[in-house]
Amino acid sequence: MSRTPITRRLFRWTDERLGASHFARKALDKIFPDHWSFMIGEIAMYCFVILIVTGVYLTFFFVPASDEVIYRGPYKALEGTTMSAAYASSLDISFEVRSGLVMRQMHHWAALIFMAALVVHLCRVFFTGAFRRPREINWIIGVTLLVTSIMNGFFGYSLLDDLLSGTGVRVGYSIALSIPVAGEYLAFLFFGGEFPNTEFITRFFVLHVLLLPAAIAGLLGAHLAILWRQKHTQFRGPGRTEDNIEGSHLWPSYAAKSIGLFFIVTAVIAALGGLAQINPVWLYGPYDPAQASAATAGSQPDWYVGWLDGALRIMPGWEIRVWGHTVANPFFPGAVLPGITFGLLYAWPFLERRFTKDRDAHNLLDRPRDAPVRSALGAATLSFYTILFIAGGNDVLASVFKVAPESITNLFRILIFVLPVIAFFVTRSACRSLARDKVHPFGGTVGSRVRRTATGGYELIDPHEDDKPKVGSVLATAETSPFRPPPPPD
Amino acid sequence: MGASTAAKRGAERPDGGAAEGMPAERRIAILLLAATAAALGLAGVYIAGGQPQAEGALLGISLGGIGMALILWARGLSTEGTVMGDRGTLAGEDEDVEAVEEAVEEITDEPGRRSVLKLFWVAGGALVLSAVFPIRSLGPAPGRALLTTAWRPGARLVDEEGRPVRVETLEVGGFLTAFPQDAEHAADSQVVVVRVADGEIRPRPGRENWSPQGYIAYSKICPHVGCPVGLYQQDTRELLCPCHQSTFDVLDGARPSFGPATRSLPQLPLSVDREGFLTAQADFDEPVGPGFWNRD
């Protein structure tokens, strides 16, 4: 006698209590377009999951306190050193907690990859015009996710209270201090008084493990719910229109692929966490405000704040003194630049609409070449931030290329204005020529195809034949798949 | 690319992958068995005391095996190829929209109540304003904290181990970090003391007697963003901040000669007491560290 499988019994039990079958049927049949570039956002989401799991584990062992302790532990180089309880506990996590080091390094690698995936996803959305109506809300949520994630990365990096991170906190404090009018109060209220002090570690801990992760989780949930409601964009292709969507059903093929991607992302991060050393805080020593020199020479912050450090480095020594007051130098690269950066990002969908007068809803994506000016502006912007990022390593470059740091800095001060202009014009003309020639940049030249006619002669095949929608052939197999009944009406 | 994978899939489907030699099912099984072995090995490593590289590698193999098996599984499932569906519309029916709008507006339907409605905003605004005050508890008022340091007239200079600095402590060309005696932990008071040849210094007006016997002391906190100005290039008599490469000319009042710093390092007026110890004549005559609105 065959029994009903457990999955079925479980589903029946749930459905009788929650009435889930109608929603579940529609959800499992939901169509998600297949394109490799749509996976980048998923990589970010899966990194966030790994960050939560490894982060929760780390909180069991981390001591968010600046109380002074004397280190007694297996790392003999620091034996007997006075340090904060926070730094001592990160040494314990690294050396004494079994699997602690792998968890810590996975957490750090996941954060670096999370930020990278966020930025690449942002670029994908930008260069394909996916932010256009009706997706402006999700663009705004996405930019907010970027801002909160950068801040959370900075706070997490700062918690360990090693020599490098303490120097980073000092820089953050100085930027807050430089804000006109309110800067002194802002810095004292946020950091709990003059730097260095005993307050900020506890504060950053609450921000890093509670407030900002909750914000990120909430924003991510909203991001996905809106994506679900609006359905994903798709590239142009045969039979694809603004009103339909081509892809795989959520269940089982898309889900299996996506969960597979989750495992592979986690596998890569686990392998990095075990095999690739990251942020070896024991080498830097505890934070000492008088002692940063040896370690801070040739040290760079995590990559996602590198552009800010680069901006601090190449900003000329200018400040404004008015009516007996000072607008200090770090205000411009440290506060104005990120303000403009994120302000422009937030405003972009509305700015573009102003210039193009395009108020229509778009579900079909642009290729970068389809919008030469947008792509050119994007490339110019990327080159600007890339220069800032590289300038964050000007001392390293100076020692590698054996030139004075002054020369490197002066070079970057010129490149920061010249390269974006070049990037703009090169990208714009490349886009225009691609759009005209219809040759894929990585596809090479195809030659021409011929076909034998019925009479025995040859004729050239129109190379753009594939671009034309084949309504008759493809749509017929779409809505009515022989493998499943049509979905219930909405 | 799409066409080639589709062709591969087609070849695989009938018996699960004749084209590639090994059936997909067998490949999935191998991956899952490898993942199982790696996971059990991982448990073994923990029990044996843990080893970071082995833990990371085994965890990676275990997760990667499951991940690749899932993707192979998903490929085998794609028998129907892609499907196309209707997007539907986002905006609702006019009837629904109007019903919602009217329902929302019902709350202000009573004409007599409109005038009081504004008071909700007033009360709410006042509540928000009063809720700002607890934020004030987060930190002390800046007061004079940013304007002064722990240096007092006559305070002896001590090095990082707490030993007083004597007039013979440094050779010409040497440098060290010093704090005020009895306030060795005052981070805002740290100074870098450099000894140059007597007479080499070009003192600023009013500072002629601040650098006895070639000893000259500057605040060690970079006026840019506060890193310790910890590098001294003896040949050029320059102090260098390692964080953002601001450079200061020791002989010329620590004037910034390169980099983002806008101001000279504040100079601590030094003297030598009768017993030969270096002391401060007074506190700095300007705030140390990065700039702020009320600095001057």
How would you summarize the topology of this molecule?
The complex is a heterodimer of chains A (490) and B (296).
Chain A: H1 6-18, H2 21-28, E1 31-32, H3 40-59, E2 68-70, E3 82-84, H4 85-95, H5 100-127, H6 136-159, H7 163-177, H8 183-191, H9 200-230, E4 244-249, H10 250-275, H11 281-284, H12 293-296, H13 303-314, E5 320-322, E6 325-327, H14 331-356, H15 372-391, H16 394-400, H17 405-437, E7 450-452, E8 458-460, H18 471-474
Antiparallel strand pairs in A: 1-4, 2-3, 5-6, 7-8
Helix pairs in contact in A: 3-5, 3-10, 4-5, 5-6, 5-10, 6-7, 6-9, 6-14, 7-8, 13-14, 13-15, 15-17, 16-17
Chain B: H1 2-12, H2 24-47, H3 52-77, E1 83-86, H4 94-105, H5 114-131, E2 157-159, E3 175-180, E4 191-195, E5 215-219, E6 231-233, E7 238-240, E8 247-249, E9 255-258, E10 267-268, E11 270-272, E12 278-280
Antiparallel strand pairs in B: 2-3, 3-4, 4-5, 5-10, 6-7, 7-8, 8-9, 11-12
